[in-house]
Amino acid sequence: MPEEKLPWSPPKWTQPFSSSRVQQGCEAVFEGLVSGCPHPTIKWTWRGKPLEEFTGKVGRGKSTKYDEETGKITLVIEDLGPGDEGQYECRADNPYGDSSCTILVGGAD
């Protein structure tokens, strides 16, 4: 008997965020792809706190996008510079599980 494909699936990173070297003062763009059925909800944290909680100067210039249909997730850090370092974590959740992918933005080597 052929295996039946279940209509649901936990979140899975089909393309994790790739690390890239970005120059200070430039826009840093990180893209990844996640799948899951039903479409997962996405939550970002930075330095262990929800990204949206950062306000003022430290929170400015950081934006995220999520396209449920394609699974494309984007983090944009405008004018990358001192103060933007740290671990950015993207967590995808649905009723069947969760999965996280992290981006580590470091200071000058």
Any chance you could write out the topology, listing elements then pairs?
Elements: E1 9-15, E2 28-37, E3 41-46, E4 49-50, H1 56-59, E5 62-67, E6 72-77, E7 86-94, E8 97-105
Antiparallel strand pairs: 1-2, 2-6, 3-4, 3-7, 5-6, 7-8
Task: Describe, in plain words, how this protein is organized in 3D.
- The chain is mostly beta strands.
- It is 4% helix and 50% strand.
- It is built from 1 helix and 8 strands; from the N terminus they run ββββαββββ.
- It has one helix at residues 56-59; strands at residues 9-15, 28-37, 41-46, 49-50, 62-67, 72-77, 86-94, 97-105.
- Strands 1-2-6-5 form a 4-stranded antiparallel β-sheet, with no helix packed on it.
- A hairpin with a 4-residue loop joins β5 (62-67) and β6 (72-77).
- The longest helix is centred in the middle third of the chain and has 4 residues, at 56-59.
- The radius of gyration is 16 Å and the shape is elongated.
Element-by-element helix/strand order: EEEEHEEEE
Shape: elongated
Distance between the termini: 57 Å
Largest sheet, order of strands side by side? 1-2-6-5
Percent range of helical residues? under 10%
Which band does the percent of strand residues land in? over 45%
Radius of gyration: 16 Å
